[in-house]
Amino acid sequence: MASNTKGAILARHRANDDLNTPLLPQVARGDSDLAADGMRGPLDERIIAAASAALENGHTHYVDVPGIGPLRDAIADYLKGAAGGHYRQGNIVITAGLQESRFLSVQMIGEQYDSIAVPAVIHPGLRKALGLRSRNPRTIAVSQAKGYLPSIEAIAQAASDGCRLFYLESPSRLSGAAYAADEVAAINQIIAEKDAAVIWDQGLAPWVEGAYASFAALDSDCARTAAIGEAYSGMGLASWFIAYIAAPEAWVSSMQSQKQIMAICTSTASQYAALEAGQLYNEARGRQLSRLAQLRADLLSAASEAGLSVVGGEAVNVMALKLSEDNMKKISRAGIDFAAGSLFGAPDVIRLNVNHSTAAALRALS
Amino acid sequence: MSKKKKTGTSLLYQLIGEARGYDDVIIMGRGDPDFDTPPHIVAAAKEAMIHHHNDYTPPQGLLPLRQAIAERVKRVNNIDVDPESEVVVTNGGQEALFLMVLAVTYPGDEMIVPEPNYNTYADSLAFAGGVKVEVQTYAETDFRADPQDIRKAITDKTRSLLLVSPNNPAASVIAPNDMREMLDIAVEHDLMILADDIYDLFVYDDFQHVSPASLPGGKERALTLNALSKAYSMTGWRLGWIVGPADLMARVTELKAAVSGGASVISQYAGIAALTGPQDAVEMMAEAYRRRRRMVLDALDEMSMKYGMPQGGQFVFADIGFTGLDSAEVAQRMLTEQHVLAYPGSAFSKDRKDYLRMTFLQPEDQLMEGLERMKVAMDNIMAEKQ
Ligand SMILES: Cc1ncc(COP(=O)(O)O)c(C=O)c1O
Fold first, then answer.
1. Does 3.40.640.10 match the CATH number of domain A45-279?
2. Quick one: A17-43+281-365 is in which CATH superfamily?
3. Beta carbons of B159 and A27 less than 8 Å apart
């Protein structure tokens, strides 16, 4: 006998486009997959040794909901060093990956606001996280010239319209474009004036060459910013699902309660691996950053020779192209997967990961 | 002492915080087995770090793990599922629970919940905007949920029925006849069933656990969760699952992707090793819990405590009403005076102020010591009363 109750549940589910937004793969499914959010990478033997030693020594039990103390400390220190954030252990929640960071932050911080301002072009994971329980999103227009980030004027407009919570990416997860220091200062001024708050996705910040302007650095009382990002991206931990939220303690408390309800804690293997990765990060990231920067520079020349239109961006691990539908098809026909801008809200753009296979995608277009 | 009166989870956090301050504390509260994860599972995780650390996993989990889960639920629970479309891997039973509740609940929907029950169901339901409709169960009848009471609790807003068997904290197991009747009620009133089988390998004496999804007509309306946490001593790995009909599981998959995107590939490989490798460690642990349960029951008998016979699970829910004190106070005194922590029933439900929950997840010498200390605390409380 068919169930009407189930039928009704499924009908409402199917009508929820936000919840049904497809996600991008966490890591590449093969060499010709340039669509993934996270980076594949070699895993340092010391990370394997540290994570397996932790397990062998009995760290196989529940741990504290917001994460093991040493990792929370390490992330707080890392954020102080890398992005100038003003964090201590009590500000950090370790999460089971960036999507959990998104979900917890928009749902739990969002609960305290009437609405949340969301850029028209944003990672699809955000729409998905909001689809589960809408926090009344309001769209902020983005500027193509700014690599699909909202302009300062658009943010000011949203604030004047009454929005008090903003979700911003810098760098953009589509184009890699990041706000410059003066822009971040201008955003901060708007936010401070309106006593508003920001969820700031800075997951791609490690891949910005040169100075990165973090919003969290300006929030010296740690009062209005939740910064989210992957824990040590590029260290071979993308499939281990480990990320962070750094936020005012009052927000940590509600996110921690919700994390208890939906996960209890984060996998110990992932946490001990991240702890070791943190030790190695400065050196390893530096090497990878210069390698990626070189690769991307070569790709930019190739793109320019082929007459392709590259969307400007500062993060060197991604490259976004404006393409016709025909050209998108050409890349697909060459067996290469890319992240479709349509998932982000920019249908005429694609995002390619920068690695040794990216040149093949460009060749398919020439 | 002017301690602010706390309830529910915050009361628990307060007690746990205090317990941490005592070097010699014996914790008979948390549902975390004392055994470490068996070594062959840890070894498989290490192998995965070397060979599979970059593997892609879809939100619903690695196919070989889903296949191992499908075989497990067939073997243990007699539920037939297609690993391709009817299994979703989760970050522990906790995420499975959260997703199951969200999968069937829209704001205003009612879920029938036999009480006492695992708190997180109420929290998840609150997140979803659903309404908990309680059906009470009692120690005198070994916390049996009476199908007739469930029937009476149904309204035109009821959408689902929660069946946690063996139960936490009550340790009751829904008898096969009752389970059939509950399924009949669910079919008659067109309710979804949420089944939590996380303690299904811990069933004592002659009691028998039946998964509702294994009964005719059950699978299409039931979501069933389980996890490796309790049976394999893998609480820190965060690995669980939901099985159910493909149409609902498609929704569960989207919810899983929205909440956390996927599960750690290392934990997933460890999970494959756990489910497909040697099972002697699981049997050894289950045997230890059987022995310890007996120890606890003997000690409670000596203390003249009443309890619902724990038919399954890893808990005893004991009635301390005869002390005339609130269980929060009894737990507090046991902790402060004797450094032994049992969870007060009021942490589970406001109606359970007369109960204490004890686990038997400690090494036997510690458990013995904990029970001795409990006896001292109870003697003191009773002496004061006279
Ligand atoms: C009834 C029940 N369901 C689910 C869980 C969640 O367990 P875990 O997330 O550790 O697998 C627990 C944990 O205590 C439980 O008692």
1. yes
2. Aspartate Aminotransferase, domain 1 (3.90.1150.10)
3. no
